[in-house]
Amino acid sequence: MGGLVGGDSTEREHVRVAVIGSGFGGLGAAVRLRREGITDFVVLERADSVGGTWRDNSYPGCACDVPSHLYSFSFAPNPDWPRTFSGQPAIRAYLEHVADTFGLRRHIRLGHEVLMMRWDADELRWEIETSAGTLTADVVVSATGPLSDPKTPEVPGLAGFPGKVFHSARWDHDYDLAGKRVAVIGTGASAIQIVPAIAPDVERLTLFQRTPPWVMPRTDRAITAVERWLHRQLPFTRAARRGLLWGIRELQVSAFTKRPNQLGLIESLAKANMARSIKDPALRAKLTPSYRIGCKRILLSSEYYPALARPDVDLVASGLKEIRGSVLVAADGTKAEVDAIVFGTGFHVTDMPIADRVVGAEGRTLAEEWKDGMQSLRGATAAGFPNWMTIIGPNTGLGNSSMILMIESQLNYMADYLRQLGMLGGRVALAARPSAVNTWNRQVQARMERTVWNTGGCTSWYLDAQGRNTTVWPGTTGEFRRETRSVDLAEYEVVRVRERERVPAGAAPLPGALPPDPRASNADAAGSGSDAGGAEAAGAA
Description:
Strands 1, 2, 3, 4, 5, 6, 7, 18 and 19 form a 9-stranded mixed sheet that branches. The protein has a 5-stranded parallel sheet with strand order 8-17-9-10-13, covered by helices on one side. The protein has 2 domains: 14-149 and 349-496, FAD/NAD(P)-binding domain, CATH 3.50.50.60; 158-227 and 256-343, FAD/NAD(P)-binding domain. A hairpin with a 2-residue loop joins strand 6 (125-130) and strand 7. By secondary structure, the protein is an alpha/beta fold. The model is unreliable at 499-503 and 507-541 (pLDDT under 50). It has helices at 24-35, 53-56, 88-101, 191-198, 225-233, 235-257, 264-277, 281-287, 304-308, 366-369, 403-424, 434-448, 452-455, 477-483, 518-521, and strands at residues 3-5, 12-20, 41-45, 108-110, 114-120, 125-130, 133-142, 164-167, 181-185, 204-208, 215-216, 299-300, 313-316, 320-324, 327-330, 335-337, 340-343, 358-359, 388-390, 428-432, 492-496, 501-503. InterPro entries: FAD-bind_Monooxygenase_sf, FAD/NAD-bd_sf.
């Protein structure tokens, strides 16, 4: 696999493709590369095992808020999911199974954190510096994901806190919370799973809530042995189940993207869910959001409200302002003395740290290019960064369905991108035209104006520092699949090393070049079974 470049003293490994990250996106990319006949690639993973966000998020109660049969690769169905909404151990085991089943282990480099990637404009390749050495690659596929780097707020006095502090995505399993006074900061998807999981064991739990979430009941149950047997013996039953789950969610999209007022009935159901467990009117008032449901991610839990009704759980309806020794002080002056702090404060989504480590053709980092907001072409490529792609890029997130569907669509696009490079022949690069990137993003942002995420009256992690929604896709997963079915060369500039000049897009392929395989780029319906290759961890969102 790969080869060596450079002289005797500067020999470095060279590969056709370098994939960054080994979560759903990275493993899916690896499977798709092998299916395309590309074996000259590596998967660079900074940790000591695969799994991405499902490896990192191992906190008590961690589970997915997307049904299991939809939260899995269409090319690797799992008939033996234990629950309708499976927990973190089952999902991580599934990813390990994918790595083994598709022979990916020999491509995976554990303990290889990417420190810097630089585009070599002379050689048309990426120089990649890792914590374990340097290599080069013709193409980089960045699959680090938006839920990979935890965000911990800068709270005055935090450094002087004498107790234990950790983020939900870096849970300290060696620290026993039993009998401790614990503060949980944040009320996102992680916190609503952590609170009911630890409340019975701690002495007292204090939850600091800046903004209340909308919470719907989570209809989770064990999948019976009979169901699992049917899914193994009669695969069409498994496909039908997946298709039904997908179809229901596709029908919901218009309410989020075009008709937010239709969400009023869902709000009524969420309020009824709260009223069943929260009898105290004052507490219920603190837990009732003032924004339209769906503006922030709708959370699923049947245990969250009962946990908040416990006598040993306190809700502070105000954000954490400062820490004085072991005393936490909220913005409204409420104080709580605690032994441990758990931050459930999300991730660097619109300011992903990996962007600081990617240096493009003009010598600027991706973070510098995106200083006014992330933007890409079809959620995949960025102007100024040839032969570089991202999985789960800008405006590819979802508010109601499975990110695996979006990932598989992006892998279709990746596969055709590589086919186009092969057709062009020789050492060549594709560079997204700035005009194409701008046109795509103007269209996306215009559609975003009507969505509940922009009009619902909330501030969420979907929005960047400028208030632009650069994370969510304002359409159905089926529509996104059509938009990423193949690469349009008119949206790219073709760069060749031998001529040192740009060649008009759509140039004729070299003699003997193979045409693209239409079977490989045509995906099946999003809910049924694509051959392409994904977390949102409910607890990591």
